[in-house]
Amino acid sequence: MISIVVCTHNGSTRIGPCLASLTAQENPPEYEILVVDNASSDGTGEMVKTYLGSSFPAEAWSVIREEIPGLLYARLAGLSAARYEWVLFCDDDNVLFPDFLFQCQQFLSQNPGIGVLGSLGIPEFLGTKPDWFERYSSSYAVGSQLRDDQGGKHLVYVYGACSIYRKKPLLDLFKKGFKPVLSGRKGKEMSAGDDVEWCWLMQLMEYKIAYSSKLQFIHQLPASRLTWEYYIRLKKGISSSAGLLTAYTFYFSASLRPLIGFAFHYFCKTLKSVLLYGKYWVRWMGKPSKPENQVSFAILESQMWAYLRQGKSALIHFRQLKNYFGT
Q1: With contact defined as beta carbons under 8 Å apart, do 297 and 280 qualify?
Q2: Less crowded by CB within 10 Å, the N or C end of the chain?
Q3: Number of C-alpha atoms within 13 angstroms, CB side, residue 236?
Q4: What per-residue confidence (pLDDT) applies to 149?
Q5: Distance of alpha carbon 129 from alpha carbon 226, whole angstroms
Q6: Among 100, 122, 114, CA closest to 23
Q7: Rounded distance between C-alpha atoms, residue 244 and residue 306, angstroms
Q8: Distance in angstroms (rounded) separating the CA atoms of residues 86 and 107
Q9: How confident is the model at residue 152 (pLDDT cuts 50, 70, 90)?
Q10: In angstroms, rounded to a whole number, what is the distance separating the alpha carbons of residues 157 and 211?
């Protein structure tokens, strides 16, 4: 049994194909559709109510209004409202294959111990496909991911689009007062890393992260997201959580976890990021010409500012990890 949570902000013009795919699943387990209207101002909520009201059983869907903008808050609202054991987070530009839920149920029933299950995104270009797309496509939540069940000694993750989470462990953790440190997308802000954080939290609770290529969905990519300028902004957003995520990587890998040890580790990471940025700024005079160098420089710059700005928050969060998961 699966709860599908669709988080949307001003998605009235793009959510239609997503909803159509959710209501047309073949041989699915019992499921519900929860659409979280995240501070929309374009009538998204009413549009969804009209659509689902005429195409899906009334007791199996609902629209939840979340006034605080940000993907984190939308997902938390959906997680809290979900009735079933598994929660599928589906973006409003995702279109599920007809057998998605059937394949999902089959995989989960045969693989106990899983906390998060990733799926295979297939791009649909609503504009001209860029020449560089294949090389950098992984940043767009498309393509294959893990080769098999992962976890254990290494932190791994799957992208957030069409990922399936075991509800109870996460919800119990948040109800106890644990506060995620990453908020995800917020309006036009490109910040990311919330999907990484939730996967790592599940691993800290000793669940496996898995992936199945049989779970397929189409990820619709409009022309506005297929420009080089957008891609550079996307990479900066992905890298902008580097400082905060350091709390997880140090906590997971260190045999001893004193706060002063993490503070020193964080200082070294910050210093290294500043020196690397400075080195390549001098090499490229702040304006690299080759595309691959532009990507590298954007990542270095974003990571540097993340480390410089997020130190205090990272220390507070590291202390929270020790309080909830032990020393």
Answers
A1: yes
A2: C
A3: 14
A4: 47
A5: 7
A6: 100
A7: 8
A8: 12
A9: low
A10: 10
| pLDDT given at position 150 | 47
Which DSSP state fits 129? P
Q: How many CB atoms lie within 10 A of CB 172?
A: 11
81 vs 74: CA distance, rounded Å? 11
Query: What rounded mean pLDDT belongs to the chain?
Result: 93
Which residue in this structure is represented by tokens 């202390």? 319
Phi, psi of 25 (to 5 degrees): -70, 140
What per-residue string of b and e applies to 68-105 under the rule 16 or more CB within 10 Å gives b? ebbbbbbbbbbbeebeeebbbbbbbbbbbbebbbbbbb
Q: Which two tokens stand for residue 12?
A: 């009235």
Which sign does the torsion angle of CA 40, 183, 154, 141 carry? positive
Nearest to 225 by CA among 192, 196, 188, 195: 188
Question: What number of residues does the chain have?
Answer: 327
Determine the Cα–Cα distance for residues 189 and 253; give it in Å rounded to an integer.
Answer: 31
Mean of pLDDT values over 157-166:
95
- Is the pLDDT reported for residue 185 higher than 90? no
Q: What percent of the chain has pLDDT over 70?
A: 95
Structure-token pair, residue 267: 């200082």
* Sequence letter at residue 239: S
Block residue for tokens 């195409």? 55
- For 185-208, what is the mean pLDDT? 83
**CB–CB of 22/90 below 8 Å?**
yes
Question: What count of Cα atoms within 13 Å lies in the side-chain half-sphere of residue 248?
Answer: 24
pLDDT score of 312 more than 70:
yes
Contact between 69 and 77 (Cβ < 8 Å)? no
For the ranges 14-23, 53-62, 176-185, 308-317, the lowest mean pLDDT is seen at 176-185
Cα–Cα distance list, 245 to 46, 142, 240, 320 (Å): 37, 23, 10, 13
Which residues face 38 on adjacent strands? 66
Q: Which two tokens stand for residue 80?
A: 């809290």
Looking at residue 183, its pLDDT comes to: 78
Token code pair at residue 318: 């590291």
- Distance of alpha carbon 125 from alpha carbon 35, whole angstroms: 25
Maximum Cα–Cα distance across the chain: 62
